[in-house]
Design a protein that fits this description.
Distance between the termini: 25 Å
Largest sheet: none
Structural class: mainly alpha
Radius of gyration: 22 Å
Mean pLDDT: 85
């Protein structure tokens, strides 16, 4: 992951239990809260992008299509994998 050389400070609110659990984590103790929260935000955004792409594929290819007689019997072979 590459970060801009200029970072912005932000303020977030978390409950005491979450903060205690976060501070008890070995990665947080080693790398700091900011680094771990940046990684979590990157992971969230990557996951959200994958979901958006998967949904676009489902919308584009998941609808009913006209049957081609040459493809009869193959419909069950192309099942979208579960998430």
């Amino acid at each position: 992951m590459m970060y801009n050389s200029i970072m912005k400070s932000i303020q977030i609110t978390v409950d005491d239990d979450l903060l205690q659990r976060l501070d008890a984590d070995a990665d947080v103790r080693r790398d700091g809260r900011s680094a771990v929260i940046r990684r979590a935000a990157e992971a969230y955004l990557a996951s959200a992008e994958r979901r958006r792409i998967a949904e676009a594929y489902r919308r584009a290819y998941g609808g009913a299509v006209e049957s081609d007689p040459d493809l009869d019997g193959w419909a069950g072979e192309g099942v979208w994998p579960p998430e």
